Amino acid sequence: MENLFDKIVTAPMMDCFQKLIEFLPNLLSSLVIFILGFLSGWIIKSIIQKVLGILNTDRFCKRMGITQVLEKGGIKTPPSKLLSQISYWFVVIIFFIMSLYTLKIPAIEDLLEKFFLYLPNVFVSALLIIVGYILSNFAGRATLIASVNSGIKFSGLLSKTVKTILFLLAFTMSLEQLGIGHDTVIVAFTVIFGGIVFALSLAFGLGGKDVAKEYLEKKFKGEAEKEDELKHL
Amino acid sequence: MPENTIALRKDVQEKINELGEADIVVGIPSYNNAKTIGHVVRAVQAGLSKYFPDAKSVLVNSDGGSTDGTMDVVRETTVDFDSILLHHRVGNLHKIITPYHGIPGKGSAFRTIFEIAKTLNVKACAVVDSDLRSITPEWIELLIRPVLNAGYDYVAPYYHRHKYDGTITNTIVYPMTRALYGHRIRQPIGGDFGLSGKLATFYLTKNVWETDVARFGIDIWMTTTAVANSFKVCQAFLGAKIHDPKEPGSDLSAMLHQVVISVFNLMEEYVTIWKDIKGSKPVPTFGFVYSVGLEPIKVNLDAMIDKFRLGVKELSVMYESFLPGELMWFLATVGDKPKEKFSIPDNVWVEIVYNFALACHRKLMSREHIIKSLTPLYLGKVASFVIETWESTAAEVEQRLEELCIAFEKGKPYLVERWFEEEEE
Q1: CA dihedral A94, A97, A101, A103 (to 10 degrees)
Q2: Are residues B159 and B240 in contact, defined by beta-carbon separation less than 8 angstroms?
Q3: Which residues contact B150 (CB under 8 A, 6 or more apart)?
Q4: Per the CB < 8 Å rule, is A233 touching B298?
Q5: Rounded to an integer, what distance in angstroms lies between the CA atom of residue A178 and that of residue A120?
Q6: Which of B115, B174, B209, B253 could, after both became Cys, cross-link B372 (CB 3.0–4.6 A)?
Q7: pLDDT (tens digit, 9 = 90+) per residue, B314-368?
């Protein structure tokens, strides 16, 4: 009877206790790493905030229209503060992952390995979105100003089209980087882009053929506008 | 002071060594001006021979790589002195014809001319455009004499132009330069100048020859640098200015950008000078001033007002980031008025220009975008000016421009206050 009790209760409990004793140092170091993460995060956050302040990042973001987009999304925090907060949580998460590794649980280790392999894709994809946004904004504004100065009535639409196409291109590239949809995204983008160009060609060809004719006649027959003889310089 | 010397070509150096020193250098920058440069060279030669017969004079043609034989025209052009009844010619005019090096542009051409002037240790120097059709020998005297006889360092041109000729100069560059630096130089970007050898050497010490100044903006840079560095400045009345029309493809917003960016860049450099200057004073004017005719010209007012309206409608999101709310409201409402009542008052225009300068100073976005977005508003102001002065004589228009200049001077405290307000933020 005593032997049976040992076999059913005492031995597993002893085994469990033994495993707990073996696991405790891992848990302890995991906890220490986790706490260290908060401390390091705070230090990194302070440094980044200072550096971004020196580099005048808030002004740069305002110039590039990033601040306005954040505000539209309900984020009132200045970009420099936002970036430092992101870096804080980034460090905390890294330390958290390290602390999970320290636990040496095979299932978690396997999951983390997959996560780490995927992580660079997330970074590249985020970078593509940010650069794409900045470039599309810049190109959209340049198009708007140039078309307004040329007296094109649908300047706003033209600018928005350029901006959207460029951003869509960056977005497609980022999805491609994340491995989402692969060919589907590219095909969809090609179809949409091709469709827009085709639609515009049709619209101009049918609706604006007289304007086009007039323009080309003026251009090639030398009938330049001579209505204005003002000399600006 | 740092010297920004450039290496001159071997043949040019040999010619300079042969000459040793000279009294006067007249420079002509050129690029594919074979059709017009012959007349300019003849006027310069006649002017130097007629008015400075005892001086050792050198004509320098600084060419940007013309392919139409411009340099050959300069080389071969001579003056028939008998036909202009000039018999007392003493001096011998020397010619230096050289392509310039560096960034393509008028500024680089000037740099080579100044370098030669410095090496020859000249007393006076003048530069004239190669596309001039109205230049006469008297221009040379008027640009050089104040330097040689009255000790001036910089002689700005003063022309009589059509009331609607030079609208960028009239509505932005002249009033702004005058309000900032306190000197009433009527044509700060005229293109033809006289200067002392001392000032030519001073220009060469400035570290700008690899910047936009080398390409464009050299005219306003020279004027502002002379004034801001307290050189003795005057202007000379040259009569009418008639020159070959610019390239038909030249874009207004690009022109506006080139000129205005130069003014704004110089504001950054000379802020310590202009911030304390109040009002303005006239500069001495040489020459016999007379008025020129005002032949009617065609002005497409509707097109200008349409572009203004389109600009206000489409660019308002951009403007809102640097123009005050009241100004935005005004711009939105003025476009609705009929053509006859369309008017942009001087104080509004001053506020617009100063706020554009502040936006560029604060680098709120690409400076090129900011300045190019000024084009529709500028066209609005020009349209308003044309409507207001359609029946006016040249003298009345000049008086009207004087009022605009005074508005710029009165508005200057607003600019100064906001300029530094931003820096304290």
Answers
A1: 130
A2: yes
A3: B234, B286
A4: no
A5: 9
A6: B253
A7: 999 899 989 999 999 999 999 888 888 899 999 999 999 999 999 999 888 889 9
Cβ neighbours for B370, distance < 8 A, ≥ 6 positions apart:
B322, B356, B359, B360, B364
Provide the pLDDT for residue B248: 47
Closest C-alpha to B305, from B245, B387, B235: B387
Rg, chain A, Cα only: 30
pLDDT for the residue numbered B392:
86
**What letter does residue B340 receive in the DSSP assignment?**
G
Contact: A233, B259; criterion CB under 8 Å: yes
- Of the residues B129, B165, B315, B425, the best mutation for testing chain A's interface (the one with the most A CB atoms within 10 Å of its CB) is B315
pLDDT in tens, A129-144: 988 888 898 999 999 9
B157, B190 Cβ separation under 8 angstroms: yes
pLDDT at B139: 94
pLDDT at residue number A100: 87
Give the bridge partners for B25, in sequence order.
B58, B125
B298 contacts A227? CB cut-off 8 A: yes
In this predicted structure, what is the pLDDT of residue B424? 47
According to DSSP, the β-strands at B193-196 and B124-127 are antiparallel
Chain B nearest CA to A159, separation (Å): 10
Give the contacts of A55 (CB within 8 A, at least 6 positions apart).
Answer: none
Residue ranges of chain B with per-residue pLDDT less than 50: 1-2, 248-249, 424-425
State how far the alpha carbon of B176 is from the alpha carbons of B347, B364, B373, in Å: 13, 21, 18
φ/ψ region of B165 (left if φ > 0, alpha if ψ in -120 to 50, else beta) reads beta
Among A58, A141, A149, A218, which would you mutate to test the B interface (most chain B Cβ atoms within 10 Å of its Cβ)? A149
The pLDDT of residue A143 = 94
Residues in chain B with CB shorter than 8 Å from the CB of A59 are 362-363
Determine whether the interchain pair B297/A155 forms a contact, defined as Cβ–Cβ distance below 8 Å. no
Contact criterion met (CB < 8 Å) for A230 and B256: no
Residue A70 has pLDDT above 80, yes or no: no
Under an 8 A CB cutoff, do B375 and A155 touch? no
Looking at residue B315, what is its pLDDT?
Answer: 94
The residues, ordered by sequence, that sit 6+ positions from A184 with a Cβ below 8 Å of its Cβ are none
pLDDT of residue A214: 67
Helix (H, G, I), strand (E, B) or coil at A17: helix
- CA torsion sign for B226, B227, B230, B234 is positive
